[in-house]
């Protein structure tokens, strides 16, 4: 079975750089950039736990599962 992959969307218009998201991320898919700004450092590491999305006080993170298109040539 293929490994699931996720897209992490950060809405910088809502984000207040509080740091919760990259502090709670268990795999360090999220990291901090200058002035505490969150960045997606490695989306491949995301396990889709949704901790960042649920704990962000400003509803600035959205994690979505990438849907793999399976070609059927049969
Ligand atoms: S938890 Fe939300 S508001 Fe805080 S740094 Fe992360 S995205 Fe920004
Ligand atoms: S869903 Fe989980 S693993 Fe993925 S970026 Fe958010 S906290 Fe990290």
| CATH class category | Alpha Beta
Q: Which residues form runs of ≥5 with pLDDT under 50?
A: none
The average pLDDT value, as a whole number, equals 94
What ions, cofactors and ligands are bound?
Answer: iron/sulfur cluster
Instruction: Give the topology string: H per helix, E per strand.
Output: EHEEHE
DSSP helix fraction:
10-25%
- CATH 2nd-level architecture: 2-Layer Sandwich
N-to-C CA distance? 20 Å
Strand order of the largest sheet: 1-4
> Structural class, from helix and strand content?
alpha+beta
Give a quick account of the main beta sheet: strands, pairing sense, barrel closure: 2 strands, antiparallel
User: How big is the Rg?
Assistant: 14 Å
Question: What's the shape?
Answer: elongated
Please tell me about this protein's structure:
This protein has a single domain, classed as Alpha-Beta Plaits (2-Layer Sandwich). It is elongated, with a radius of gyration of 14 Å. It has 74 residues and is an alpha+beta fold. The longest helix is centred in the N-terminal third of the chain and has 5 residues, at 20-24. The chain has helices at 20-24, 51-55; strands spanning 6-10, 30-32, 38-40, 61-65. Strands 1-4 form a two-stranded antiparallel sheet. A two-stranded antiparallel sheet has the order 2-3. The site of one iron/sulfur cluster has 13 residues, from helix 1. One iron/sulfur cluster (SF4) binds at residues 10, 15-21, 38, 56, 58, 60-61.
